[in-house]
Each structure stands twice: as C-alpha cells, then as structure tokens.
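Tokens for chain A. Residues wanted.
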C-alpha cells in the first residue's frame, strides 16, 4: 500500500472513530437529558396523614391495582428490577429500599401517585382518592415483605 492509500485509510479510521465517539456521547447525553432531578414534593403534601388504615380487603384490592398499574416498571416485589425498568431513562423507585421508604411520608407517596411525572403517569383521574391511599398502604407492605425475604423467612409474607 502506497503512502497516499495509507493516509486515506487513516483518515477513514479517524472519521469513523470520531463518528462512533460522537454517537456514544449523543446517546449518553440524550439519556442524561431524559433523567429527572429528585422529586420536589410540596411540604403541605408531605405532611398529609393517611386517612386509610390498612385492612386485609384494602391491601388485597391495592395489590390488584399495583399489579395493573405499577408492576410493569416497579416489578412484582417493588424492587424495580423489571425488564421495563431497564429501558427507562431513570430507575423507578425501589419500594423495597427500607431507608427510602422510612424517609418518605404517606403524604409524599400519595402526592407522587397522584401527580406522576414522565415516564410515570398521574393517577389522579384513573384511581380514586381511596384507591391511592390503599396503594400507599400496599407500598408500605412491600418494604416489610422485603425485610422478611432478606432474613430468609418467606413464611411471614
């Protein structure tokens, strides 16, 4: 190969390498642009108390709501390890994260379910207020189940 051919080949490799790097940067940049900052929940919403006490019937109904509306992204267990979660620009909340769930108030969880934010939809018009509070109770149950599973006591589910 003569010097001119080698020079052309080097330029092609350089151009292709630059294109590849710029493509990766663009993909990563797009993913970063889609990522959301932390939720900004109004203080008055955080302070709202859950008016619904957990009950067997309410938790059963909420489990069905969770299965229909939340499980696709947050997974059956609430650990956010579903195939759909992997395709999202930001990891969905892990309801099995005891530290996060201890920090989150019932009012905060209710507000997030009600308001939503992309890619999570708002459930204000899809679920009644009572259903959303029952769902908050169910989310609390998911973190408790995860504790027992971690301890290896699966009979406590």
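Reply:
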């Amino acid at each position: 190969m003569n010097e001119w051919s080698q020079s052309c080949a080097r330029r092609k490799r350089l151009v292709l390498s630059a294109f590849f790097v710029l493509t990766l940067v663009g993909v990563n940049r797009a993913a970063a642009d889609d990522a959301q900052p932390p939720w900004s929940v109004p203080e008055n919403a955080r302070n709202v108390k859950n008016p619904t006490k957990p009950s067997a019937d309410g938790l059963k109904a909420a489990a069905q709501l969770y299965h229909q509306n939340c499980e696709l992204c947050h997974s059956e267990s609430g650990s956010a390890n579903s195939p759909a979660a992997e395709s999202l620009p930001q990891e969905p909340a892990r309801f099995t994260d005891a530290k996060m769930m201890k920090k989150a108030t019932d009012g905060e969880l209710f507000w997030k379910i009600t308001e939503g934010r992309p890619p999570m939809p708002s459930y204000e018009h899809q679920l009644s207020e009572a259903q959303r509070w029952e769902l908050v109770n169910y989310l609390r149950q998911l973190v408790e189940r995860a504790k027992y599973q971690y301890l290896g006591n699966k009979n406590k589910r």
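The helical segments are 3-34, 43-46, 56-69, 71-74, 83-86, 98-103, 106-115, 129-150. The chain has two domains: 1-34, 43-156.
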